[in-house]
Amino acid sequence: MRELPTGTVTFLFTDIEGSTRLLGELGERYAELLADHHRALREAIAANDGVEVDTQGDAFFVAFTRASEAVEAAGQAQRALDEVGVRVRMGIHTGEPSLTEEGYVGMDVHRAARVMGAGHGGQVLLSQTTRDLLDDGFELKDLGEHRLKDLSAPQRLFQLGAGEFPPLKTLHHTNLPVQPTPLVGRERELAEAGELLRENRLVTLLGAGGSGKTRLGLQLAAEAVEDFEQGVYWVPLQAVADPQLVGPTVAQAVGAKNGLAEFLGQRRTLLLLDNLEQLLDSAPALADLLRATSGVKILATSREPLRLGGEQRFPVDPLPDHDAVALFLERARAIDPGFQPSPAVAQICRRLDGLPLALELAAARTSVLSAENLLARLESALPLLTGGARDVPERQRTLRATIEWSHQLLDEQEQRLFRRLAVFAGSFDLEAAEAVSDAGLDTLQSLIDKSLVRRWGSGRYGMLDTIQEFARERLEAAGETDTARRHAEHYLAVAESTNLSVEGEGEERHDLGRLEQANFRAALGWAITTGASEIALQLASALENFWVYVDPFEGNRWLEAVLEGADEVDPKVRARALRVRGGTLYIVGEFERGMEFYNQSLALYRALGDEWGEAHMLHRLAIDASRIGDDERAMQLSEDTLAVSRRLGDRKGEALALSNLGLVASKGGDGDRAIDLFRQSAQLANEVGFDWWEGGALLNLAEVAISAGRLDEAEEALAAALTIGKRVGDRQSLVYGLSLVARVLFDRGRPARAGLIWGAIEAEEARGPIGQWETDRQEVAELLLARPDPDFERGRAQGRGLSMDETVDHALSLD
After folding, report:
1. Within this chain, do residues 20 and 103 fall inside the same structural domain, yes or no?
2. How confident is the model at residue 299, as a pLDDT?
3. What are the DSSP calls for 194-226, one per residue?
4. What is the band of 393 on the pLDDT scale with cuts at 50, 70, 90?
5. Residues 29 and 152 in one domain
6. Which pLDDT band, with edges at 50, 70 and 90, does 446 fall under?
7. How much is the average pLDDT of 484-504?
8. Tens digit of pLDDT for each residue in 112-135?
9. Radius of gyration of the chain from Cα atoms?
């Protein structure tokens, strides 16, 4: 065999498309075909100075010194194989791999194989690095950027020749995060667990912390992406502590704003639920989800089984010696390309039980320690650090020792940042790390390089949960309680910047609210636990409209908790919190209790001489006066609010008052004035970015227009309101808006369509309480259900099978 080239090397990977099928079809004649295939490839390789690195069955691995020779060989081989009658896919990539006694190792080898795996029989794919080394003598087709199944960042791929082929087998319809390095080893696990996933709807990867469950799960999901037409979704759950929040977290990941099971329905979708061990009480709900859907499968990672019927468990064991050494060498050579293996490497891998996380942490130290010194430190440190709790797995105690050892090798500045970053929940951005933990860019980068902090594909940062647990212990031991306070204060500022309370000025940042939800929850939990009542009250209040959109019931629970015992606080802060608590109670339909808090808030604002606060509470009282039929009081209160708001230049307050006056006008029978007032309110709300109120004013306008027979105006307002509700995820306004769409359709003589939407509304109600809508529903229900119609009833039965998203899209598409 010729000597393998070194330095810059171009790799060619090939295999026969559908070889198993061909073997079944051809029987004994397959051996003859395979011989012709081998001969055609080897002639092309030899003619272009290639070196055959490995051949397994119908797959070839070839190395070339020059990129042009590899591409010429691939083209020549495809022409010969076309005459043989066999379709072979080929991939070419150029890099600088490491050459060991066992052969080539490094990311470039994996990348070349993945480039090939993206193609089809008869197709030759090239990476950008190979393309850049070629002259204009080759006919190449730019296929654009694609994410390969090694979970790397998007790569630009090119095709040799102008042939037409199906779309590449690359990642699509997925949020799987970019991984800094390819998966090493695990071929057996990928094959066996992949087969289990094809045969079962629930597969749980089980193993100790640091055993590589998440990385294996991500790769399994990537390999399966072609089997799930409607998407593969990664749902990280390490920042979720409440089992009741698993469903909403999954819904957020897949984009289901209203009804997870109904959204997924018959869609072929894979959910990778990562880190479920602290959320085992959510298992029954996951079982319900599988029963309610037909195309959904769940791949879970956990330290404990879910113990559900139909659950297929798959143990994720430590890496075998060969793969452990390969992983260690690859990670070490990523730091020091000249790192050479020694007998100490195998001993290190055995000493660390083959745990991938432990190996990565150890390999990160090869920039400053030889393998022998590394082993010596491990041998002296581990016996002292294996005295963890007896009720946790032995390997988990070993991992703790490994993290402890890695932590000891950090300098003081790195240790300080490492423990302070533990306060974040889920993920965080650079600005937060700087503000909360005094992160310097170089120190943060050092922690990333040492595999203690990860940079996700989104650009945000985070820690693996096992490392974060250890970091939290170090933070507690250091007694740096100020870090948690700074975290809460920072996210209070973030919450205020979202403009999701009525005091907010500027566009509402719903996206930021959802992105930082885990950190908001963590900050609220800390503030309540430590008695930081003022921070808790301010944070919960700053998210006033966030609770309305996302989950008013959750918001109500937080407000109840933060107000308990929070008497010795700034009266203005308390007045605001009382207002928000009253609002959450009102939204969920507890009107009388909500009014109790409204009145307390009003009294405080008056005592403070806060004219804006008093005016705003008068607006709230006006809403209730209108609800109970006291229209004269509602008008007076609204006019007072309008006058004060205009004098103070409060355009939000003006929008609120105008809408209330519209309600009064509507009840008084002046539909024209009501519509005009609602339109003014919606326009003002739009100008100041007050999405929720704009949508509400448009719904009120639509209701009055329907009663006046002005159906075209009603439809226009409803389309705008539903678009807003869908964008911000306001379940209550969507349900109410759809009910008005049903009324319009019925009035236009389209009872089947009206019934379809009404049936979907009833299904949404069955999924969980909607709150204030229950009262509004009665009025619409009386109008629709009092007029029996067989077409309406048939549509109603069909609509019960629709999700909210489908129903809203249907309503918006009606002409």
Report:
1. yes
2. 94
3. HHHHHH-SEEEEE--TTSSHHHHHHHHHHHTGG
4. very low
5. yes
6. confident
7. 92
8. 998 998 899 999 999 999 999 998
9. 31
Q: What pLDDT score was predicted for residue 304?
A: 80
Per-position b or e across 246-258, b if 16+ CB within 10 A of its CB? bbbbbbbbbebbb
Q: Which of 359-368, 707-716, 726-735 has the lowest mean pLDDT?
A: 359-368
Question: Of 315, 348, 383, which marks where a domain is finished?
Answer: 315
Which residues does residue 89 pair with via DSSP β-bridges, in sequence order? 15
**Could you tell me if 799 and 760 lie in one domain?**
yes
Domain boundary among 393, 408, 423: 408
Decide: 202 and 298 in contact? Cβ < 8 Å: yes
CB atoms within 10 A of CB 313: 15
Backbone angles phi, psi at 4, to 5 degrees: -70, 135
Q: Which of 611, 609, 552 is nearest to 584 (CA)?
A: 552
Closest CA to 320 of 187, 181, 464: 187
φ/ψ of residue 97, rounded to 5: -75, 165
Structural tokens at position 26: 């051809």
Q: Measure the CA–CA gap between 675 and 654, rounded to whole angstroms.
A: 16
pTM (two decimals)? 0.66
Q: Quick one: pLDDT at residue 717?
A: 93
Q: Looking at the chain, how many residues does it have?
A: 815
Count CB neighbours of 86 within 10 A: 22
Main-chain dihedrals φ then ψ at residue 720, nearest 5 degrees: -65, -40
- Domain count across the chain: 5
Q: Which domain holds residue 101?
A: 9-160
Strands 124-127, 88-95: pairing kind: parallel
Helix, strand, coil abundance in the chain, percent, nearest 5: 60, 10, 30
* Residue 533 forms part of a structural domain: no
